Amino acid sequence: MPQSHPGADSAGPSVLLSVLEIGATDGQVPAAQVVREITDVARVSEECGFHRFWVAEHHGSPDLVSSAPAVLIAHVAAVTRRIRVGSGGVMLPNHAPYVVAEQFATLGALHPGRIDLGLGRSASTAGTGTYGALLKAALRRDDRATTEFPALIDELTGFLHPLTPEDPDDPALFLSPRITEPPELHVLGAGEGSARTAAERSLPFVYGHHLGRSKCRPAAVERYREAFVPGPRGALPHVIASLNVLCAESDDEAERLALDAARRTARQRRGTAPDEVLPPAREEFLAHRFLEDQQVVHGARDTVVKAIDHVAATLDADEIMLVPIDLTGTERCRTLRMLTGRRAPASRPARTG
Questions:
Q1: For the residues 163-188, what does the mean pLDDT come to?
Q2: Contact at 8 Å (CB) between 84 and 114?
Q3: Among candidates 41, 63, 123, 126, which has minimal Cα distance to 90?
Q4: What letters, b where the CB count within 10 A reaches 16 and e where it falls short, cover 153-174?
Q5: Half-sphere exposure in the Cβ direction for 198 (13 Å, CA)
Q6: What is the pLDDT of residue 11?
Q7: What is the pLDDT of residues 255-288, one digit of tens each?
């Protein structure tokens, strides 16, 4: 069993565990503090023995602050020592593949053997209509790039893994820095198209279970394994499934905390003012529906461990990437510590960055 496995004791999950940080905020603290708290969650993830710590990419959202994955990865990798750090993910249609290759080659040079590059096709922009159009224009994003996602991955892979030898007469672009251990590539998705893209390129597939019932297609995991093409370096299929979680001292406390987080998230997504009050029955209905739609696993440690193992077995996942739904960094650290049986230190270390 890997040393980094947080479920190494008999009471823990039997599957490898990692963490995805989406940079959620409840709007009650300054955004700069929320960004800095991502570092705290990363440190706790390493302390608790998780395998990877990834950050998401979201643009133009008032309740999500993770908009620059490469910048966050650089900082997180610098203040941790062992845990793999990566993107969950870089939305490739938003970026030039050559620029992404340069950024992650640089990260790989600074932190060899620890950098992951998860790639997605979603816009990851907040809003629709005029606001969404403005965001796409600001990102210089072309909707056609989404349908060309497989080609964009191939272009990026070509920069990170050149097939031709170094030659002054070779017309291929030179990537600087050229490193011997490029970042580990992963394909993110919730449907069969992304699964097929990953399988045909011998890449790991990250199944977006945390995106909710309306967006994810469980059959994608089976299709990925069926279509997987063994890689030239002996690559085997590897499935990571993301999972929304919240862990507390008891099932009742976890239910209370999960419903509170769901109410706050539902208000944000409706654009409701913080002090606006809905009829209690209506708010309770929306909170329960959010937890169900987002497939949130919540409860005491034993409850959550059993649910994680059940999801892993159902999806035939090699790894589960936990997405704590708590809306502050302190609360997300609590969930991770509770799940792994680690208690918070008596006094918190001074925050850097």
A1: 80
A2: yes
A3: 123
A4: bebbbbbbeeeeeeeeeeeeee
A5: 34
A6: 62
A7: 999 999 998 887 766 654 555 667 889 889 999 9
Task: Categorize the per-residue pLDDT at 350 as very low, low, confident or very high, splitting at 50, 70 and 90.
Answer: very low
Give 99's contacts (C-beta < 8 A, 6+ positions apart).
none
Distance CA(185)–CA(92), nearest Å, equals 12
- Classify strands 205-207 and 115-120 as parallel, antiparallel or unpaired: unpaired
What is the residue-averaged pLDDT of the chain? 88
Q: What percent of the chain has pLDDT over 70?
A: 84
Burial class (CB in 10 A: 0-12, 13-18, 19+), 200: middle
Query: In this structure, what are the phi and psi dihedrals at residue 55, rounded to the nearest 5 degrees?
Result: -120, 150
Domains and CATH numbers, the chain: 16-246+297-340 (3.20.20.30)
Q: How many Å apart are CA 85 and CA 92, to the nearest integer?
A: 18
3-state secondary structure the chain: CCCCCCCCCCCCCCCEEEEEECCECCCCCCHHHHHHHHHHHHHHHHHCCCCEEEECCCECCCCECCCCHHHHHHHHHHHCCCCEEEEEEEEHHHCCHHHHHHHHHHHHHHCCCCEEEEEECCCCECCCHHHHHHHHHHCCCCCHHHHCHHHHHHHHHHHHCCCCCCCCCCCCCCCCCCCCCCCEEEEEECCHHHHHHHHHCCCCEEECHHHCCCCCCCHHHHHHHHHCCCCCCCCCCCEEEEEEEEECCCHHHHHHHHHHHHHHHHHHHHCCCCCCCCCHHHHHHHHHHHHHHCCCEEECHHHHHHHHHHHHHHHCCCEEEEEECCCCHHHHHHHHHHHHCCCCCCCCCCCCC
First to last CA, the chain: 34
Contact 27, 62 (CB under 8 A): yes
Upstream peptide bond of 89 is cis (omega within 30 degrees of 0) = yes
Nearest C-alpha neighbor of 95 from the set 133, 129, 145, 132: 145
